[in-house]
Amino acid sequence: MESDIVIEAKKVSKTYDAAGTPVRALQSVDLTVRRGEMVAVMGPSGCGKTTLLNCLSGLDSIDEGDVLIEGVSLKEMSDRERTKYRARRMGFVFQFYNLLPVLNAVENVELPQLVSRVDPKEARERSEAALELVGVAGQANHRPSQLSGGQRQRVTIARALASNPAIVWADEPTGDLDSQNAVDITKLMRRLNEEQNLTFVIVTHDIAVGRATDRIIRMADGVIVEELLLKAPEPEPEAEPEPAPKPEREIAALTV
Ligand SMILES: Nc1ncnc2c1ncn2[C@@H]1O[C@H](COP(=O)(O)OP(=O)(O)O)[C@@H](O)[C@H]1O
Ligand SMILES: [Mg+2]
Question: Which of 17, 37, 64, 227 is 20 to 30 Å from 7 by CA-CA measure?
């Protein structure tokens, strides 16, 4: 059975050197995220949200502690393995889209797959399906400059989904959008989370985004200071209460 825990951070610390002054961006952070959970990371600017996302996803290295993704320690992977793992199992959505201006939407979505050597025909099929899923199939041949902010963010979400990841990491995904587009993108992420049991970790300033998730993690000065559970975890099938045993079963149990 696949593990229910998809992300496990154990006492993760990260210190940056800012022109000779150490900045303790993360201090012994513990965090567990279940498969299919949608988590928001909130807190004031500079509190370590982006660092947390980068360290947990393996984009950045950590100084102390450990991060297990689907039970595998990032520390035990080589750089190459980590990169490969990220390409296969993780999707990323950033505030400013990171789309290449010279490529159209479908080419932007398929590029990371081509880099990780997915067969071009399959990459195109997956990319078209992902654009369809996020509602911009009609704009597949448009370049980013021909798309609205909301459409661009849909394309980056499609790019994140196209490799069929276990986790999507989003850093301020609605930060550059007007409020209506922010609502639409939030709903889209929620729908993908629910329909595909996709795990989302979303860094956000926007409380409306936070409210749409299962759990808000509030950070301050490199530590998690509060967790707010908005939606109780679904019970595991195994964890469901057993029906009351019939008398004959009770008796049989006594005799073995
Ligand atoms: N590459 C870096 N070099 C030095 N300091 C950094 C670097 N990245 C982040 N920091 C510092 O680490 C702290 C946390 O930053 P960050 O994770 O970006 O915060 P947030 O995303 O919550 O705004 C801040 O004090 C920031 O200035
Ligand atoms: Mg940030």
Answer: 17
Contact assessment for residue 22 and residue 198, using Cβ atoms and an 8 Å cutoff = no
DSSP 246: P
CATH of domain 5-255: 3.40.50.300
DSSP label of 111: H
Residue 23 Cα to ligand 1 midpoint, Å, equals 8
- From 21, 47, 60, the mutation candidate for ligand 1 (largest count of ligand atoms within 8 A of CB) is 47
Q: What is the pLDDT of residues 56-79, one digit of tens each?
A: 999 999 999 999 999 999 999 998
Residue 253: both structure tokens together:
């149990």
| Ligand at shortest distance from the CA of 46 | 1
**Taking the CA atoms of the chain, what radius of gyration do you get in angstroms?**
21
With a 6 Å cutoff on the Cβ, whether 25 touches ligand 1 is: yes
Q: Does residue 223 line the site of ligand 1, with CB under 6 A?
A: no
Sorted by where each begins, the domain ranges of the chain are: 5-255
Low-confidence ranges of the chain (pLDDT < 70): 1-3, 235-256
Check pocket membership of 87 for ligand 1, CB cut-off 6 A: no
